[in-house]
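Action item from last week, closing it out:
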Amino acid sequence: MSTNPIDLQPRPPGLPPQIFNPKRIALHQQRAARRRQRLKNPQFILAHIAEDMAQRISMINRQFEKALFICPSGFEILIKPHLNPDKRPKNLRFSSLQSLALNQHKKHKFDLIILVMAHHNENNPQGLLRRLKNHIIDDGHIITVCLGGETLGYLRQSLYAADQAFFGGIAARFHPLLDIQRHVQLLNHCGFNLTSGDRDRLTVHYKKFSTLISDIRDLGESHALIATSTPPLNRDYWNHVKTAYKSHFSDNEQYIAHYDVLWANGWMPHESQQKPLKPGSGKIHLSRAFKP
């Protein structure tokens, strides 16, 4: 079996791997925004994230003063109806990652920054988070949410089967995904405190394979890898994908798909936050706790 590595581009020392094509990602996001606007039908994953996000904000024991949402176009319309008036940030700003210019906010500090589907396809997500950290006040909060984990794992395996049949090996056509641990570690490595994360799995049954593909396009998550080493995919290839999918991952003639929504959050360091005890500072030896 032959494999096509994702990162084939030579790069200077210290430069993160160039996995994604930023121009292609921007083009996919623009097309997705136009599709959502034309269809006047909110993308169901974004709608789910908006409702869940509003609930999570309401559960934080604080009303934020100034919040920056870095999110897909139209997310503002989805989340505003769900925000609790008592917990709604007093000043809301919305921007896509492509149109965000941090130098415009260099004089502004936010106590809440939220990234919605904005960092998982970045070549240097840690660098992005470090830049955003400069715009969060002490004891400010950050929330990140993206698709990861085993998202569309059945589609991935069906693509692998078609690749093997048509090309004799696996091609690089599926985006690498974060898992929960790595998602939280991104915040840890950037110096955020009190980090945590969780996963929310959505399971969808599709009557048509084309609807699944349309949902991917409506999210702006179409193929954007730099490495492309196979010819254009024809109808025979996609028929093989659909046959493999239906044979192994269907229920009552419906295609089953999982979307893992990954959440992570953290706080800017502040002296008021709880701190772990220093090693050796315990007053009671552990062995005494287990004596009858």
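Closing note: The CA atoms of residues 182 and 188 lie 10 Å apart.
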